[in-house]
Each structure stands twice: as C-alpha cells, then as structure tokens.
C-alpha cells in the first residue's frame, strides 16, 4: 500500500459564515422557537441548521416575519425512504416530517429573491440512531413578498414537539461578493469577467432568474467555451407528484417558467484534474407551482483557470428585468 | 494507510478554515486518515473528495474515530442516472461509489455531530461514467453510536488500493462564535 503525500496549507483561510444566534431546548419540551431582531435584505444569505429531537409527530415549519399561515407558502418535497421515493407539492412550509422519538437534522439555505419572495432550500435526514434513515428535501417559496427578514419562526406540528436537546443555529454569510449584477434591460447573456478561479478556489453563483414571455433556460459557460456539446448535464426533477431524471450533452442548469422567477444556488469548482463542475439547485416558482430541480454539469475539456463566466439564455433576451446574479468567493 | 496529523490550532472566530489537504501522488491507497481533529457538536466541517478509481468499481466509506465497522452506520441514498431515479437504504456509511476503473467522482460532504452526539453526513456525489456522461447520487449517512467529538475521519475504499493517484481530499472547518 502506498503512502499519500500530505500537502498542508496552514495560511489559507476560507471566508464563509458567522453564527448569528443559536437556541437550545433545555428544561422541558417546547412548541416553537423564534429568531428576532434580524435585518437581512436581498443581498444576504442565511443558513439555518435545525437539530430536532422530536417529541411528537408532524413536520416543523419555517415562517418569516410572523407570517405564520401555512397556506402562504408552497413547498416541493422529494423524499426517499428505503426504495420508496415520494414527490409531492404541498401548501405549507414544513421542513421535515418528524415522527415520535426520531432525530431530525436539516440544513436550510434561506434567501430573499430579488423580487422579494422568501425562499428556502433544505436538505434533511430523519433517523432513529439504530436503524435506517430517510432523505427529505424541500424547496419552499412564500406566496407573498417582503423587503427584509426581521424574524424567523420555527413551529412544531405537535404541542411541545421540540424535545430537550433540540438545537437551532442561524448563520449569516460573511464571504466576499465579487460580482453582483442586476439586470435593468432584458438581455441574452450576462458576463462576469476578471476572475481568477483555480483548483484551490470555490465559488457560489446564485440569484434570481426572471423569465419573460418564454421559458428561460440559462447556461453557465466558462471562459470562451459556449458550445453546448462541450458539457454534460444530469438532472433530478421533482414537480408535484412527478419525479424523474434526465441526462444530456448540454449545459442548462438554471431555468424559469414563462412569466415567473426562479431562485438558484450553484457551487462552481475546478476539479483536481481540471474539469469545470457546477452543482445547481433551482426552485422554480410561481410559488404555487414550485419545483425542486437539481442539476450537475461537467465540462468535457480541462481548464486551469476560469477568467470569465457567461450566463447565456437559449432564447434572445430571455434574462428579464429584475434578474440578479451574485458571485461569492468562499475561498 | 495514509495519515495526516494536524497540529492544534487556535479557534477562528469567523470564516471557514482549511484544516487538511491530502493528495495521493505516489501510489494508490486503500484509505486516507485525517487525524488530530477536535470537532465538537457546535462545529461543522465540509469534506470535498475528488476520487479517482484505480481498481475497478468500488464503494467508498466514511468512518469516524476508528469506528470502521460499516454496520455501525446507516445510509439512505437516491440516484439520478439519465431518466432513472431510484433509492435504497443500506447498513453502511457509503458516501461515494465509482462504477468503473479510471473514473472520477467529486463529492461534497457536510459532516456534523448532532446535539445528541450522532454522526451525520450529507453527500452529493457527481460521478463520471466515461465519454463525458455523468450522473449523481445523494448519500445521507448517520451512525448508530454517539460521540462527544470527531477526532479522526477515515475515508476507506471497499476494494484494496482503489483510491488512485490524483485523488484529493480537502477538509474545511466552519467556525462560529
């Protein structure tokens, strides 16, 4: 067996997130927790880590600014338990379907879209410590719009549903935003230039895509390679009760239906062998039609450095007014 | 077995910090250890695994604290490959699977101890299938035992020497106040 040569870089520091607040349940079980005194706008990103020791059945829900009305939110659920896959669209903002005595761990990315919708994408696991787990992912959107997040409420479905030991941690992104583009006139493409993304780097490209009269499909190209067949894509799509996949020799990780908007969050990286890889989660809305879309793209060519990213629509002027794209440097 | 021994570091108040960066450059290995950690319940780490296979098809497992027994973990996964979407639950902590030799997987894994002390991992595994085609798997794993801290992470291949030259593992710690 060979030895692995260890390379350490003790001076490198990755900018990321800072803890804003944490709440741990002690003493006795409770029914809800609240984060107040917040002041987050459209330029901010939050991560909520929820560690729920369930004291009852039912799904805890996430609300914003005391708008605690389940029907003011829609979510697309994708659940896998053993060989069973369940896909459903539900008029609520539940985060995970807890069962008595279960442990539930959920990571939730929270954002205000550029047009003011409160959206979150969460990945959750329910387990019991002694047997099998289930995956529960939810992509959720409010039906109302707001200008800022001033409070968050997490409410259990059952009375005193959060048992002792449950913990909720709210983080705010502190990483550097290297580009923030707001579209003022409908356009076919947006370019982000002057970059220096190498194998040591990691960036997040996220934002709001607002479509015009046609469905918008937008590619993420690197440098000057804008040929669709130079990339491959695998997708996982959940829309209402339908779940399926697709693979193609192309590149279109971000989509929005005609006259609607989508929120997307993509991690952009160059692998150790030089392939350009994009992992993109997209919540397509009108809120009542929210879908869960997960797309992975890889390049067929190798790059050593990415100097330019081009977001390009399949249709002319498919990126409508109000669309916004942020490039965040994590390292 | 390769091993990275880390010196103790002062806590970083904000930001994420690279705490280990291991690249396989001489010959293929069966496992990689990242030791000298001290990851408590308030901390989260991100493991980015860039794995090149060297021994045909192989699974790759994630263990902590020398508890390298697959039956002490459970994983639920969902696979999207072209139009097919399938799922299953297994009594092991598989976090990647390469389907053929000389293929590459890129895996992003969030690792944490829950407040109750259970090990949790959530992985997104992008797999090259050859000729440019890809698919992906989401693996969500938990332990059946509890721990007070994660002191060591072991990445272990199912098949001997299945972690090929050019594989790279980077571990980041997300710090907080």
Would you kindly provide a written description of the structure presented here, covering whatever features stand out?
- The complex is a heterodimer of chains A (331) and B (177).
- In chain A, strand 21 (275-284) and strand 22 form a beta hairpin.
- With 331 residues, chain A is an all-beta fold.
- Chain A has an eight-stranded antiparallel beta sheet with strand order 2-12-4-8-9-10-6-7, with no helix packed on it. Chain A has an eight-stranded antiparallel beta sheet with strand order 13-24-15-20-21-22-17-18, with no helix packed on it.
- Chain A starts with 12 loop residues before the first strand and ends with a strand.
- Chain A has strands spanning 13-14, 17-24, 32-35, 46-53, 61-64, 73-81, 84-90, 103-112, 117-127, 134-145, 152-155, 167-173, 176-182, 189-192, 203-210, 216-222, 231-239, 242-248, 254-256, 261-270, 275-284, 291-302, 309-313, 324-329.
- Chain A is built from no helices and 24 strands.
- Chain B has strands at 2-5, 16-23, 31-35, 44-52, 58-64, 73-81, 84-90, 94-98, 104-113, 118-130, 133-146, 153-157, 168-174.
- Chain B is built from no helices and 13 strands.
- In chain B, the strands form two sheets. Chain B has an eight-stranded antiparallel beta sheet with strand order 2-13-4-9-10-11-6-7, with no helix packed on it.
- Chain B is mainly beta.
- In chain B, a hairpin with a 2-residue loop joins strand 10 (118-130) and strand 11.
- Chain B starts with a strand and ends with a strand.
- At the A-B interface, strand 1, strand 2, strand 4, strand 6 and strand 8 of A face strand 2, strand 4, strand 6, strand 7 and strand 9 of B.
- Strand 1 (13-14) of chain A pairs antiparallel with strand 2 (16-23) of chain B, so a sheet runs across the interface.
């Amino acid at each position: 067996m060979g030895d692995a040569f260890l390379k350490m870089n003790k001076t490198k520091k990755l900018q990321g997130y800072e803890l804003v607040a944490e709440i741990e349940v002690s003493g006795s079980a409770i029914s809800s927790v609240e984060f107040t005194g917040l002041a987050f706008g459209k330029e901010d990103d939050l991560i909520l880590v929820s560690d729920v020791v369930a004291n009852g059945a039912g799904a805890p829900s996430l609300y914003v600014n005391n708008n605690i009305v389940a029907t003011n939110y829609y979510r697309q659920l994708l659940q896998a338990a053993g060989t069973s896959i369940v896909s459903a669209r539900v008029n609520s903002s539940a985060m995970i379907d807890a069962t008595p005595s279960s442990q539930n761990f959920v990571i939730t990315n929270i954002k205000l879209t550029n047009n003011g919708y409160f959206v979150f994408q969460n990945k959750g696991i329910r387990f019991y410590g002694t047997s099998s787990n289930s995956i529960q992912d939810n992509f959720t959107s409010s039906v109302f719009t707001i200008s800022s997040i001033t409070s968050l409420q997490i409410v259990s479905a059952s009375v005193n549903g959060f048992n002792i030991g449950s913990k909720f941690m709210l983080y705010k992104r502190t990483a550097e935003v290297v580009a923030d583009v707001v579209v003022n006139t409908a356009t076919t493409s947006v370019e982000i230039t002057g970059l220096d993304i190498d194998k040591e780097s990691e960036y997040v490209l996220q934002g709001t895509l607002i479509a015009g009269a046609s469905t918008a499909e937008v590619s993420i190209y690197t440098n000057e390679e804008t040929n669709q067949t130079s990339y491959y894509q695998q997708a996982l799509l959940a829309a209402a009760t339908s779940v399926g996949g697709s693979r193609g020799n192309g590149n279109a990780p971000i989509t929005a239906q005609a006259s609607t908007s989508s929120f997307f969050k993509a991690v952009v990286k160059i692998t150790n062998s030089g392939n350009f890889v994009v992992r993109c989660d997209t919540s397509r809305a009108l809120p009542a039609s929210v879908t869960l879309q997960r797309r992975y793209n890889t390049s067929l060519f190798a790059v050593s450095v990415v100097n330019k990213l081009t977001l390009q629509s399949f249709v002319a002027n498919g990126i409508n007014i109000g669309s916004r794209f942020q490039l965040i440097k994590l390292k | 077995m390769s091993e990275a021994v880390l010196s103790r570091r002062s806590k970083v108040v904000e930001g994420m910090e690279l705490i280990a960066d291991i690249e396989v450059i001489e010959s293929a290995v069966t496992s990689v250890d990242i030791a000298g950690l001290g990851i408590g319940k308030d901390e989260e780490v991100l493991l980015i695994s860039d794995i090149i296979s060297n021994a045909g098809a192989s699974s790759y497992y994630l263990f902590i604290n020398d508890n390298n027994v697959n039956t002490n973990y459970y994983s639920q996964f969902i696979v999207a490959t072209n139009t097919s979407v399938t799922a299953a639950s297994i009594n092991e902590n598989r976090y990647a699977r390469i389907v053929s030799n000389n293929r590459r997987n890129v895996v992003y894994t969030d690792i944490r101890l829950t407040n109750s002390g259970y090990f949790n991992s959530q992985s997104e595994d992008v797999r090259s299938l050859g000729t440019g085609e890809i698919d992906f798997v989401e693996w969500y794993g938990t332990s059946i035992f509890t721990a007070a801290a994660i002191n060591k992470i072991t990445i272990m291949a199912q098949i001997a020497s299945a972690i090929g030259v050019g594989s790279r593992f980077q571990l980041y710690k997300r710090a907080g106040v």
